[in-house]
Amino acid sequence: MDDFLRGNIRFGSLSLYRELEDDTRRDNLEGISHVSHDGLDHHGAMPGTWVYVLCCSVSLDAICKSGFGSYIVQIRNPRALAEELTKKLVLRPEMFYEGVEGVLVKYSKGHKATAMPTPFDLIRLSYSQKPHRFLGDEEFRFVVIRKTIGIRAPEKHLTFALGATLCYSEPARCQHGQAAACMIGDK
Question: Which residues of the chain have a pLDDT value below 50?
């Protein structure tokens, strides 16, 4: 937590979360979207990329119930954090798509869609969609997409050293002692 508050931020690759989380938390299809429409299953992914996420929650209650760990950092201004991270991103030697994106997770993996999903929809869902059983997490993600052209095995983590204390972040606590990596907003 102290490291995060000092501006040292670590994103994890989606493949890391597929492999390391316990059975109750694992989404074996993390990084692959899945929507059904008119009896057909549609899947999407981002070939030639490595997706990194910083997982948060929009609700202190949700993060306290999830039992992720022993610390919470409340981010009062997620846009400011995304902008700072994006400034650091463009200085890196690796190639990335755009900057840091913030997405609310959709708990619709495998659900029926009323409209045919576009390729863009399927790609975006590949990093912002989870099964309904995770609905209680109320997850928000900061997302960075790295191009992997010419890279054999990208790193499992992407770290940022912002070089300053995050003035818009502060420690937070659950009443019963449970906590997690971070949360978004003032709830």
Answer: 176-181, 186-187
